[in-house]
Each structure stands twice: as structure tokens, then as C-alpha cells.
Amino acid sequence: MARILAIDYGKKRTGIAVTDELQIIASGLTTVDTKVLIQFLKEYTEKEKVALFVVGEPKQMDNTASESETLIQPFLAKLEKQFPDIPIVRVDERFTSKMAFQTMIDSGLKKQQRKNKALVDEISATLILQSYLYSK
């Protein structure tokens, strides 16, 4: 079986999470500079089978698209073009950053460690992936 890869797309950094090959457990993989995201995904998919991309969908409280959705749309077009055989699913990502920060507190990370925005992005991607897995 192939993995599911989740993407918490950001202007500067993008959090990445993946499932195990049985698609049961979501784990944070890394955070990459958004400028090299497509290249990272190419290299990753050459080493690992990926069945699906799950991309966070930022929404406002009234369910309308967030401003950052305008940044994500061009990325989605590139993703579809580069990986035409891998489907893309969008998952509501409201509150994932707050939940990620709370997870860091609950895990006992010290204040200095919680300032690591890359870790927040990676945990957010994991939460997006877990949300997708729960909905399946």
C-alpha cells in the first residue's frame, strides 16, 4: 500500500506529514522551504509510493475561503501538473495552528521550543492528515 502525504502550505514554510504504508498512523515528516516544495515532493515520491495528497484548506469562520487560499491555488495547479496520477483532497485546516501549539504545550515542550514555527507547521500537517484519516 502507498502512503498518504499531507501538506500544510505556507508562504515561507510548508509542513509535511505522512501515513505509514497501511494508512493508519499520521506522523510529522518535516518542514520545507516553500520555494523548494515541488522538488522535495518529487524526490520523496521517487523513494516512497504516495497514493494521495491531502492539502489543508484555510477557511474563515463563516466557511468562506481565507486570504491564503489565493497562495495555495497556484501551488495546487503545479502539484496537479507535476503529479497527474496522485489525487489531491482538500481538508479544512481551521484551528490546526492553535491545536498544534496546544499539542506542544501538552507535550511539555519548553517555551523556547514552542517558538519553533517549523515544528508548528509540521504538527499542523499531522493534524490535517489525522482529520482526513478520521473522516475516511
UniProtKB/TrEMBL annotation:
<dbReference type="InterPro" id="IPR037027">
    <property type="entry name" value="YqgF/RNaseH-like_dom_sf"/>
</dbReference>
<keyword id="KW-0690">Ribosome biogenesis</keyword>
<protein>
    <recommendedName>
        <fullName>Putative pre-16S rRNA nuclease</fullName>
        <ecNumber>3.1.-.-</ecNumber>
    </recommendedName>
</protein>
<feature type="domain" description="YqgF/RNase H-like">
    <location>
        <begin position="2"/>
        <end position="100"/>
    </location>
</feature>
<comment type="similarity">
    <text>Belongs to the YqgF HJR family.</text>
</comment>
<keyword id="KW-0963">Cytoplasm</keyword>
<keyword id="KW-0378">Hydrolase</keyword>
<dbReference type="GO" id="GO:0005829">
    <property type="term" value="C:cytosol"/>
</dbReference>
<dbReference type="GO" id="GO:0016788">
    <property type="term" value="F:hydrolase activity, acting on ester bonds"/>
</dbReference>
<dbReference type="InterPro" id="IPR012337">
    <property type="entry name" value="RNaseH-like_sf"/>
</dbReference>
<dbReference type="InterPro" id="IPR005227">
    <property type="entry name" value="YqgF"/>
</dbReference>
<dbReference type="GO" id="GO:0000967">
    <property type="term" value="P:rRNA 5'-end processing"/>
</dbReference>
<dbReference type="GO" id="GO:0004518">
    <property type="term" value="F:nuclease activity"/>
</dbReference>
<keyword id="KW-0540">Nuclease</keyword>
<dbReference type="Pfam" id="PF03652">
    <property type="entry name" value="RuvX"/>
</dbReference>
<comment type="function">
    <text>Could be a nuclease involved in processing of the 5'-end of pre-16S rRNA.</text>
</comment>
<dbReference type="InterPro" id="IPR006641">
    <property type="entry name" value="YqgF/RNaseH-like_dom"/>
</dbReference>
